[in-house]
UniProtKB/TrEMBL annotation:
One of its GO terms (cellular component) is cytosol. InterPro entries: Cof, HAD-like_sf, HAD-SF_hydro_IIB, HAD_sf. Pfam families: Hydrolase_3 (PF08282). NCBIfam families: Cof-subfamily (TIGR00099), HAD-SF-IIB (TIGR01484). One of its GO terms (molecular function) is magnesium ion binding. It comes from Faecalicoccus pleomorphus. SUPFAM superfamilies: HAD-like. This is HAD family phosphatase.
Amino acid sequence: MTIKAIITDLDGTLLNSNKQTSAYTKHILERTRQKGIHFCMATGRCPESVEYKLEEWGLDENIQFILAMNGSTLYDRKEKYRQDFHMMSGDALIEVVKHFEDLPVLFQVLYGPARYTSKITPEWIQRSKLFGETLIQVDMKEFLHHRTTNKFILLFEPDLMPVILERASHFHDASLYGFPSGKDCFEYVDSHINKGFAVQKLADLLTIRMDEIAAFGDAGNDIEMLESIGLSVAMKNGSDAIKAVAMYQTDYDNNEDGVAHFIEDRILKTDD
């Protein structure tokens, strides 16, 4: 199998627990670029936040494409080209707010480097600074009225997740798809959107086949991506759900350069 593009999730996958990449990972990604293999990111983050951190991660020269907002945005860094797909109606999301607002939940929306939030907390002041975001408090229902957006975020304490999942199971809108994207996060996107959708758009742009793509992921929002491509790899630290759909599992976790080791041992050596 000839791999022409590698796509990886960020948090829990390419990045370690300190949200950094090692010298070894940077070296392997540089070798990947020299081999002519496209290296791309697929993330729930907005492209502006990723762009802000690429130089710090040491990946500025090795990344051309960012599949952002869980698959609803394709950004070509070289051409400065951005395409957004299937934006959600803000008025539909107001119903989401009503459905969850009695719970201790933060509601957030991203527009470029601005993160609009239903409440500003010390934790989110610090987290937004890490990615060069401006944190702005708004009345979320008023803010959403007559707007469209890529994704809608619910944030809460991890032990509230069972309650969130149960409550979400009683919310019905065929235009929206909700899923947990972390231990303290639940998101809504348009029902057509997932990372696999964005990977197909990228394959079309690069004029390559889906079976010529390898992808790495660790969580539920990576499932459709791994199901759609030729070489699917779950992280050792990944969820049971992602391991169930992947062809392979890394021998090392995200704190041990799991992605880089797999690329060196199973893709670059094969290519050689």
